[in-house]
Amino acid sequence: MSISEMHFADSSSLENLVMPSALRDRVAVVTGSTGLLGRQHCLALANAGAHVVVTDLDLAACTRVADELRVEYGVDALGIAADITQHGELIALRDRILDRFGKLDVLVNNAALNDKVEGRDASVPVPFEQFPLEQWKRAVDVNLTGTFLCCQVFGELMASGRSGSIINVASTYGMVGPDQRIYRDDKGRQTLFKSPAYSATKAAVIGLTKYLAAYYGPAGVRVNTLSPGGVKTTQDEWFVSNYSERTPLGRMATPEDYRGAIVYLASDASSYVTGTNLIVDGGWTAW
Question: Which of 286, 140, 113 is nearest to 208 (CA)?
């Protein structure tokens, strides 16, 4: 069989790959949980038996995802709006979790600002030299400081219980520089320069993870990073083609491709894994 004839598993088969019951009766909170990957992380955790706290900025969206989890998987789910850059809101979120569940076992730090290829004005790409300082500061505030604050508030809670798993979502661009060529359209026009703030903050998240793995290890709390590759959504075909040609597996990820990794890092299947960056990128960083 040639490479071009190979078939990949469709999303319907992925339900069998996320270890059902691996997280039964555990409590997980996912930040940025109403976005594309955040919702998938919630679905994966609920499918594995976890009770899930769905948190993002939009309360109505959080409630919709929580309702979906209850109906689809029969778990307890709670939708709560919170701004991860605000320490007081995280304390209030922690207290709501304790009131409802009495504990917390898993934290997925997924919330982040990212440059989107789809649905943007591609006529004015912003090179590094012109990147606005305010955008830099906002990305640091959300992507890095927000992760730091969540780890402070919820890591302390887990450490007091002598167990837990923190999963910080980073990116391939936290390890390698963006290949700006993939943002050139089929006419050769540069439609986007990937943000320097995104790369810098995601690299910092990987460093923070290693610090916290060493710090919280004696308390029985594991801290790992998940670094995903690009996900196919509604991007133009020229971009999908550019990205796929740059990837050894020859395709972008599906939204479901990270479910198994999330459950693995959250569950006892990774009980001796901490301080690790789990790269799930179709081979993007292999060359």
Answer: 140
Judge whether residue 135 has pLDDT over 50. yes
Name the helix (H) or strand (E) containing 151.
Answer: helix 146-160
The number of folded domains in the chain is 1
For the purposes of burial, counting CB atoms within 10 Å of the CB of 121, is it exposed (0-12), middle (13-18) or buried (19 or more)? exposed
> End-to-end alpha-carbon separation of the chain, Å?
24
pLDDT band at 251 (very low <50, low <70, confident <90, very high): very high
Q: d(Cα 30, Cα 49) in Å, to the nearest integer?
A: 15
Q: Which residue segment(s) compose the domain that 66 sits in?
A: 20-116+144-286
Q: Which tens digits make up the pLDDT trace of 61-120?
A: 999 999 999 999 999 999 999 999 999 999 999 999 999 999 999 999 999 999 877 655
Catalytic site positions: 198
Q: Quick check: is 135 in a domain?
A: no
pTM, rounded to two decimals: 0.92
205/183 Cα distance (integer angstroms): 25
14 assigned to some structural domain: no
Assign residue 171 the CATH number of its domain.
3.40.50.720
**In a domain? residue 123:** no
